[in-house]
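Model it.
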Amino acid sequence: MSRNNVLITGKQITKVFGYGKNKKTAVQDVHFNFHEGEIISIVGESGSGKTTIAKIIMGLLKETSGTIEYKGKQRQLRTHARRKEYWKDIQAIFQDPYSSFNMFHKVEKLMMDCIQLQGLKLSKEEHFEKMREACSFVNLKYEELYNKYPFELSGGQMQRLMIARIFMLHPKVLIADEPTSMVDACSRSTILDMLLKLREENNMTIIFITHDVGLAYYVSDTIYIMEKGRIVEKGQAEEIILTPQHRYTKQLIADVPKIHSEWNLA
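Modeled.
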């Protein structure tokens, strides 16, 4: 991957939850540089701090100390207007797609909200065409879904609907937190390919949050390994998998014995 401009920088990011005897450090002294069009995976076991970092980048959690820079300037999210502007550029898809949608709104309403977020003034026919195009991108038929509620759709359909939402919003950054953990193997591959296609078409920066080293190798330009709230190793995906340096990275790879054959690393 050619090195594009740095889009997001984290400097000495620390996040502490609780106070006194109940204080727990979830993330400690984390540094990162994410480039335009880059696919990054933050890999670690449950409790390693990777989801906390994702929420800090997203602006859903405030760092205890350290700074986030976006487009070369220190990020400011103190006002609703600034948060709203930031979230136009940064979107997320989560492990449980059902938690991301209002269960009482039909698909048509959910997709219409995406168009309204962009402030576009479109005719009824243009609205329909935009929603149909987004569904087509993820191999869904809008005509078959628009009148259904989220609970009437499968997990795979819901994840694809989330990707259709991203297709409509065109963010600069997508945070994907374990996006394939609740779907079958066939849907898993399809969803990953759709996300990679989004990157190709929009030069989108994608940040995967995952425990799966194999998936990280398959999709990523760069891998960050997290253990107990710290980044213990980072580098190009192939270097991390083929020549791991840290004992925790080696352990993660050893825990997936088929990684070399499954991801064609031999």
